[in-house]
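Late entry, written up from scratch paper. The run itself happened at the end of the previous shift, but nothing got recorded in the book at the time, so transcribing now.
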Amino acid sequence: MEPSGFQVSVSVRMPDWTRPVSAQEKATVTVVLFQPLALAAGLGVPAIRGFVLSRLMPPAPLSQQLPAREWADVVAWQRDARLESTRRSLIDADDATALYAFRRWRDESGAVMREAYAGLELAAPACPVLCIASATDRDVPMPVTSALAMQWDASLLRVPSASHVGPLLARNAAVVATQALRWLSPR
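Output as recorded:
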């Protein structure tokens, strides 16, 4: 789903929200859809107006509120993927999206997942933030995202009946994206 005029690129480095913004960064709005990749949408505006955070692994100490998980050295999501379990994890997505996701599972480093669950020390961004919380997210429960939004004095968008990836892949993902863009527009 790329509205006309939007170009999406992927950056694999974690943003440093506390440093001054460079001239190049001032030429783009960065919308962060996070875990932990940053998706940058070049919207042709003069300054970074805000961050939109969805599927956020919360920083320490809020990370301690995540459900307890044990991570093997290799989390075999691709190897162990089954279409039926993919459908169950994407309860709010259509069959075509579930099939798309099923074909794109990848194994993950257990060390990376353990580090993410332990939580990184992050300061609040120096710009407005919108946190998107999914009502039925079992990985990052809505109360954790709500607490982060309160801690960072951020706006909070509660998405009812959305799974962990629902804001990005559910039937109503376009509605969520429209709400996020609407939040960005007055900034």
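The chain has seven helices and seven strands.
(Scratch paper discarded after transcription.)
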